[in-house]
């Protein structure tokens, strides 16, 4: 079966079994997010259109930074807090940033996640999560599978936010753009 996201899939998403299916689901959610920023300018990417502080550029930046952070958590598996994980600036597109630059960073992050997951021996591998202000006192461990499911959920949630922001910006939505 051919879908609109087939052309954007990487070799990692063609892996067999559960690993490939999870990476493919993540790639499909990424594609939905990318649809929302197709054809917009840097000014539009930085524009707030709702009462939320979120912008399309800010969402792309956050998703890119999140992908890189989660890759570090997966690869290092040391429970250390990655640099920038709690930086609230990751949610805002600055005047110096371009949407194209943020999209390139997002593509780099997507490849990093897929490469890291492809290289792991199995999805049951336990990974210690970094301690954050909202963490319980004991170290929490997640299997790689749960981290992938978290990334899928996070991407889907922000793709929905982006769709609302884009629709308020100019009436476009992912359903009409597919």
UniProtKB/TrEMBL annotation:
Domain of life from the UniProt record: Bacteria
InterPro entries recorded: DinB/YfiT-like (IPR034660), MST-like (IPR007061)
Protein's name in the database: DinB family protein
Species of origin: Streptomyces katsurahamanus
Lineage: Bacteria, Bacillati, Actinomycetota, Actinomycetes, Kitasatosporales
